[in-house]
Specification:
Structural class: mainly alpha
Number of domains: 1
Number of helices: 7
Largest sheet: none
Oligomer: single chain
Order of helices and strands: HHHHHHH
C-alpha cells in the first residue's frame, strides 16, 4: 500500500512540475497509443462489469436478508447496496477526471506535448482516429528501425 501511495505521489509531482519536451519525446502519446487504447477498452469493460457485480451482490444480499426475516439484515443489505451503487456511479466519472487531468497536463507543459492521441485512445478506443494513431505509430516504428 505504501508503494502505491509513493508511486501515486511521484506521478502527481510529475504532472505538476512542467518540463521542457525534447523533439524525440514529443510523440510519446502517438508511440504509446496502443497502450492507451488497451486501457480504454479495460475502462469500457469495467463500466459494464461493475454494474453487473453490484446487481448480483445486491440480489444475493437481499435474498439472504429476506430468508433470515430479520429487519436489521434487510436494512443492512439496503445500506450495503446503496454504498455499492455510489461506488458504481463513481466509475462513470472517470472520463471526466481523465479529461481534467489531460487538460492540466496541456496547461502545465504549455501545449508543448501533444496529448490528443492519449486522450482520444483512452476515452474512445473504438474510434477510427485511434486506429489511425496506432497505424501511424507502427509506421513510425518501422521507419526508425
Amino acid at each position: 500500500m505504501k508503494k502505491i501511495k509513493f508511486l501515486l505521489s511521484v506521478f502527481l509531482i510529475m504532472l505538476i512540475i512542467p518540463t521542457p519536451v525534447r523533439a524525440a519525446e514529443a510523440d510519446f502519446c502517438l508511440r504509446t497509443s496502443a497502450i492507451w487504447q488497451f486501457i480504454g477498452y479495460a475502462l469500457y469493460a469495467v463500466k459494464i462489469i461493475i454494474p453487473l457485480i453490484i446487481i448480483v451482490f445486491g440480489i444475493i444480499d437481499f435474498i439472504k436478508a429476506v430468508m433470515s426475516s430479520d429487519d436489521n439484515a434487510i436494512k443492512k443489505a439496503a445500506t450495503s447496496l446503496l454504498k455499492r451503487a455510489i461506488a458504481g456511479v463513481a466509475i462513470f466519472f472517470v472520463p471526466t477526471i481523465v479529461t481534467v487531468v489531460f487538460n492540466l497536463i496541456e496547461n502545465f507543459t504549455g501545449g508543448l506535448e501533444p496529448i490528443t492521441e492519449c486522450k482520444t485512445c483512452l476515452l474512445n478506443p473504438t474510434s477510427d482516429t485511434c486506429e489511425g494513431y496506432i497505424k501511424e505509430a507502427e509506421d513510425l516504428r518501422k521507419a526508425n528501425n
